Each structure stands twice: as structure tokens, then as C-alpha cells.
Amino acid sequence: MNSFRLNRLFHPVSRRCFDVAIDHGFFNELGFLSGIEDIGAAVRTVVQANPDAIQLTVGQAHHLQSLPGRLKPSLVLRLDVANVYGKKLPRRLYSQMIADPVEQALRLDAACMCVNLFQIPGEPEVGEQCVENILRLKPACERYGMPMMVEPLVFQPNEKAGGYMVDGDEKKIIPLVRQAAELGADIIKADPTDNVQLYHQVIAAAGSVPVLVRGGGKVGDREILQRTHDLLAQGASGIVYGRNIIQHANPAAITQALMGIVHQGLSVDQAFKIVSPN
Asked: What is the DSSP letter of 166?
């Protein structure tokens, strides 16, 4: 039954997914709000560019789902709120899941739900919370046919990176992606490896579970287009980008350019002309 909703996420021709994440306000970090201060306007702008899905929280999903018509992007519902992203970490870290997550997702007509799987140096309790969240969630997902997207994140030490910085070491990403698959993920949302040419190893670790690649921090247009092209060539089934869309000077144009690569097989040069026509 999960496949019924998954069909709403993946393009019928390319069989890939482009999910735009606009759930950053969940995490109580001022810097994460750049570009989405007016969340309603941000959602409307992205909807006009027509990605496959938009990732939102329970408090903001109405901005998407209240829009009329049947052709709008599908909703991916963010389930867990965490306090692990600040430059100075609080005394106690947590990753807490919303109550009755599958029921809330069904009421909001979500096509999928997204939950974290953290690996943070020196903070095993947070990883334990994430595993517990996933273990509780999986049976209800199966019961009601709701796909579960697991987001495995390997962090660098906070004292080294000075805040939310992911670790692109494939030797750390691969086993955590495999754990996500073992825990029953229907989709995996994973970071790119530092060496993009090794990403096929991440795809192999996920087995039959489709892998969507996270966008991470804001980078230049050509860099994000080239990275996307190369990751898809390595076997990724799509992308989940946030700040590279919502903090862009022209969110609609960069979305269209990325969709050209993801769904139409455009070259990097062809896609770059969409976002920078002059």
C-alpha cells in the first residue's frame, strides 16, 4: 500500500523525485529563516515552479494543502523537531517526534513523512532517540500505507565545525544509510559524499530503497547544478533541496533549472541558461 502514495512523489516518466524542503523554522535557528520569513509567499513561489513535493511541518502544511486544484506538489510532512543545529549547543540535546504522527499525516493528506537519524559525535543519546522514533513509527506506517522517509545525518564535531556541519566521509555515511534501510525506510534522504564519484557506494548500501540527496548549505548556481547532475549519474533517485532554493534570488528559476536536470536530462550548461539566461 505504501507504493500508492509513493506514486505521488516520483515523476511518472523519469521515476525521480524533486522535493523542496521548507521545514527549517521547526528548529528554532534564526539563520534558518532566511528566505522563508514569509512562509506563505515562499510556498506559493515554489508551488508555481511545480516540483514533485514540498516538505513542511504540521503548523505550516496548510500553506500548501489549502491551495486549490489537484496538480500541486505532494506534501512531505516533517515529523521531528531537534535542537542540534546551533553554533553553541544547549546542555541537553533532543530529537522529539510529534504526537500521533501517522494520524496527523493522514489528516493533512501527506504523501510521505520524514524522520531524522542523527549520528553526532559524543551524543549517542540523540541517535538512540532517533532509532526509537523510527522503530515506533514503522508499524503505524505499514498499517496505514504511509511511506517513511528516513534522513541519516552524520555531523562533524561541533567544536570543530562551529555549528551544523555535516560530515561527507563516505565511510560514515554508508553504514548510517544502511541502518536506515535496515530500519525499514521507504525512501532515504542522505547527504552527498565529499567525493561525488563515490556516491554509487551509498546507493548500493541502500539496496532497493530509493535515495534522494540533500542539498546542504547554499552554494553557487553552477556548483549545485553540476553536483546534482553528477549525483544522478551515480544512481540517486532525486534530490531534497532547501536553502539552495529558498535563499536563491530567483527560487522559481533555480527550481526549474534543477527540474530540467532531474526529469528531462538537461546538461549543466542547458540548465544554467534557465537560471542565468544572459
From this structure: B
Express each pLDDT in 98-154 by its tens digit: 999 999 999 999 999 999 999 999 899 999 999 999 999 999 999 999 999 999 999
**Grid cell of 64 as nine digits:** 500548501
DSSP state of 157: P
Find out whether 152 and 142 touch, Cβ atoms under 8 Å.
no
- For the chain, what are the domain ranges? 2-275
3-state secondary structure of 214: strand
* Contact criterion met (CB below 8 Å) for 55 and 46: no
Query: Is the distance from CB of 111 to CB of 9 less than 8 angstroms?
Result: yes
pTM for this predicted structure = 0.94
Q: Which CATH number fits domain 2-275: 1.10.10.10, 3.90.10.10, 3.30.390.50, 3.20.20.70?
A: 3.20.20.70
Q: Where are the beta strands (DSSP E) in 4-163?
A: 17-21, 53-56, 74-78, 80-82, 95-97, 112-119, 148-154
Cβ–Cβ < 8 Å for 241, 35: no
Sequence-separated (6 or more) residues with CB below 8 Å from residue 126 = 82, 84, 93, 94, 95, 118, 120
Q: Is 195 helix (H, G, I), strand (E, B) or coil?
A: coil
Query: pLDDT per residue over 150-193, tens digit each?
Result: 999 999 887 765 566 788 999 999 999 999 999 999 999 999 99
Q: How many helical (H) and strand (E) elements, i.e. helices and strands, does the chain have?
A: 12, 10
Q: What are the angstrom distances between the C-alpha of 191 and each of 40, 47, 227?
A: 27, 24, 12
